[in-house]
Amino acid sequence: MRFGMSGCFLPEDMNDITPEMCKRVRDLGFSGIFTRFRKNNPHDTPREQAQRLRDLLASENLRLYQVTGYWQNLVTPNESARRESVKTVQAALKLAGWMGARGIDTGPGSMNPAGPWFPHPDNWTDVCRKQLIKSMKECAQAAEDAGVFLSLESHQLVTLESPEVTKEVLDAVDSPWVRCDYDSANWITLKDVFNTGAALNHHFDLLGKHIVSTHAKDIWVENRLAVHLQDGCPGKGNMDFKTLFRRMEDLSPDYPVISEGNSTEELPEVSALFHNTAKELGIRVLDAHE
Fold it and tell me: Mean pLDDT over residues 93-119, rounded?
């Protein structure tokens, strides 16, 4: 099993990554990173900048597990807008290949103009599903050319509302390069939150062959008079990390488990949780060079 971290002290510009940051990641017990690099436009970032990052990470024995897909609306029925979104994802895949990234992470986008992860009734229509399938098929060759997984992240608020829908979409795309980045919290409902292990097993039973990475995030229900499920730092809620780790290890020891939802200050506790859980399960944690 491989452990990665995301966000926190990592910069939004690839040019700001330093050897000291890489050492800090390793010292915290992680062998790779997921970074969003929002300041590096995939349409105009020169290859030499990406190569500089690639060389630095290699010299520091650190892997680039994921970078961002820039959160495009890939489900819109507006064909002109959808084609532009596809072009951005294709550019993101090419840039990720230059950087030496294992994959990009992107959601399907949302018809809600307030943000790519916010709800809208149109998100759950057959039209949006078909548009997403079309978009993914148009991106599959770019992913293969770059040697980079196009890892779709799902959430119950957007088009990929359930493991069943996600399986339907990925089966229709039918590409070894268009896969699932499984977020442990995003499909957990009120009925699941006190037995997350059963929910995880259901998700993995349906999607196992499609999953190539996971965002390890926690979730809990808050004491409010309206239902509010809060996701966040691993170890703070009800997530069954033993089941998550066991199912990921069964898929492949090479697949990364990436911490998400935590602050920089919480990273030592998250690392301890991850390593102690792996040790308890008899799972070997791999370094970047292995």
Answer: 97
